[in-house]
């Protein structure tokens, strides 16, 4: 059944920027009507929040090559439990998604095994080595929503400029990882007094600004549509603001860089080792303000599953990354409960903006939009137990953390794909 009427709900509308008590009717998997005030019949939502499903950009799924870390089935389960109705997946798999054949495999696996929608990105260069451009036209025709080499930053600017020029001619989106690769190589934490006391290899925050400035100069030269996957330092914001005023540029930030800082590394806790590394508290606050004022467009989880063997190592050599599909919303609710963001502002960054940037029809509470919806209690407290996460890998920095806000139901195309156990 994908026809339903949901009443007595707090409608979180990121497009209108409103939060009102009302109702929503679904017909044939699409939103047919939305209204305010009371309405009889249907399913009473008890005054809880009804919002468009989250569109999470930069999700790493371990297929092909690392299925022991995450499969489309387990990623889909985790996404549904976290209110994510569309996963925009990364191409940095063990066999990179750099040919139409590999992309077709990923598309079929996602369609057949994931509870939620999958919108795959493809690599920008062959094997993500930065030497030879992929077949952007064929991959775009095969369903790639964007092109990125992820954290394998292309050092050859001539190759990158050619990729951008060709992508521009096809109207394709390029996703960059704004880090200067030589400075960033081997770094585990952000430079500063705290890092020096820990004796860990560091990278300056300026490496992000340098990488972003290089990319933006090429964007200005070629006119390509460009998205910076993660901005995490205040030093990068002035260049980003200048570019957004004149170019087709957007930017994202991970939920971990919005809610954690460099001190969370504490006693070499590797679940807090991320790429880029956690930043200063001043940088974190700057990122929150940049989301609020629209300088940063998208909040994402940068879901990066790692197995126990790659995390249970000395901090310097442990793998980077954290899972985030299930913790994205409750972690983001910290910003709402602290008064730094409103719910419409939050869902603008987690649903509406990523859907628009990556060509997805969802992310809205509007007639004619897909009924990709989540019902959640913004105030429900709980303590996270990583053992209960749906992901195959359990590498979350929020283990044992006290959080507020839980998804109670998730619908994709009007079909319920998740319901919390009472």
Plain-language structure description:
It is a single chain. By secondary structure, this protein is α/β, with parallel strands linked by helices. The chain has helices at 72-81, 100-113, 136-141, 157-170, 181-184, 193-198, 206-222, 237-246, 255-259, 281-293, 308-311, 328-337, 343-357; strands at residues 4-13, 18-27, 30-36, 43-44, 49-52, 54-59, 84-89, 117-120, 173-176, 189-190, 202-203, 225-228, 249-254, 298-300, 373-383, 402-412, 415-419. The protein has 13 helices and 17 strands. Helix 4 (157-170) packs across helix 7 and helix 7 (206-222) packs parallel to helix 8. The chain is globular, with a radius of gyration of 20 Å. The mean pLDDT is 96. One of its GO terms (biological process) is pyrimidine nucleotide biosynthetic process. GO terms for molecular function: allantoinase activity; dihydroorotase activity; metal ion binding. Its EC number is 3.5.2.3. One of its GO terms (cellular component) is cytoplasm.
Query: By helix and strand content, what is the structural category?
Result: alpha/beta
Tell me the total number of β-strands.
Answer: 17
| Alpha carbon gap, first and last residue | 22 Å
Average residue pLDDT: 96
Q: Treating each run of at least 4 consecutive H or I residues as one helix, how many helices? A: 13
Q: How many structural domains are formed by the residues?
A: 1
Biggest sheet features? 8 strands, mixed
Helix % is 25-40%
* CATH homologous superfamily classification: Metal-dependent hydrolases
Q: What is the correct CATH architecture?
A: Alpha-Beta Barrel
- The helix/strand order is EEEEEEHEHEHHEHEHEHEHEHHEHHHEEE
């Amino acid at each position: 059944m994908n026809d339903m009427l949901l009443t007595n709900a707090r409608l979180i509308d990121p497009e209108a920027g409103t939060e009102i008590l009302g109702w929503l009717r679904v017909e044939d998997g699409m939103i047919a009507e939305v209204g305010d005030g009371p309405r009889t019949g249907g399913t009473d939502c008890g005054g809880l929040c009804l919002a468009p499903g989250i569109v999470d950009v930069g999700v790493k799924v371990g297929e092909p090559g690392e299925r022991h870390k995450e499969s489309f089935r387990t990623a889909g389960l985790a996404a549904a439990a976290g209110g994510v109705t569309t996963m925009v997946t990364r191409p940095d798999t063990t066999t990179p998604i750099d040919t139409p054949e590999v992309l077709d495999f990923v598309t079929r696996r996602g369609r057949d095994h994931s509870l939620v929608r999958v919108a795959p990105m493809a690599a920008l260069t062959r094997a993500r080595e930065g030497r030879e451009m992929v077949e952007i036209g064929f991959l775009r025709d095969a369903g790639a929503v964007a092109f990125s080499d992820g954290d394998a930053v292309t050092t050859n600017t001539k190759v990158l400029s050619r990729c951008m020029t060709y992508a521009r001619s096809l109207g394709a989106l390029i996703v960059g990882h704004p880090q200067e690769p030589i400075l960033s190589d081997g770094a585990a934490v952000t430079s500063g007094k705290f890092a020096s006391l820990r004796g860990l290899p560091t990278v300056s925050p300026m490496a992000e600004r340098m990488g972003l400035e290089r990319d933006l100069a090429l964007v200005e030269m070629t006119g390509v549509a460009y998205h910076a996957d993660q901005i995490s330092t205040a030093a990068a914001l002035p260049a980003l603001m200048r570019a957004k005023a004149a170019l087709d540029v957007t930017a994202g930030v991970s939920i971990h860089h919005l809610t954690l800082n460099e001190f969370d590394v504490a006693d070499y806790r590797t679940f807090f080792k991320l790429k880029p590394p956690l930043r200063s508290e001043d940088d974190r606050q700057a990122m929150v303000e940049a989301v609020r004022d629209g300088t940063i467009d998208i909040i994402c989880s940068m879901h990066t599953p790692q197995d126990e063997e790659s995390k249970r190592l000395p901090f310097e050599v442990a793998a980077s990354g954290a899972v985030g599909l299930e913790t994205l919303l409750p972690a983001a609710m910290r910003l709402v409960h602290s008064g730094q963001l409103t719910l419409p502002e939050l869902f603008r960054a987690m649903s509406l903006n990523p859907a628009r940037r990556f060509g997805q029809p969802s992310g809205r509470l509007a007639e004619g939009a897909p009924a990709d919806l989540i019902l959640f209690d913004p105030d429900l407290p709980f303590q996270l137990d990583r053992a209960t996460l749906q992901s195959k890998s359990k590498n979350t920095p929020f283990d044992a953390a006290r959080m507020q806000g839980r998804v109670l139901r998730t619908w994709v195309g009007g079909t319920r794909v998740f319901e919390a156990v009472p």
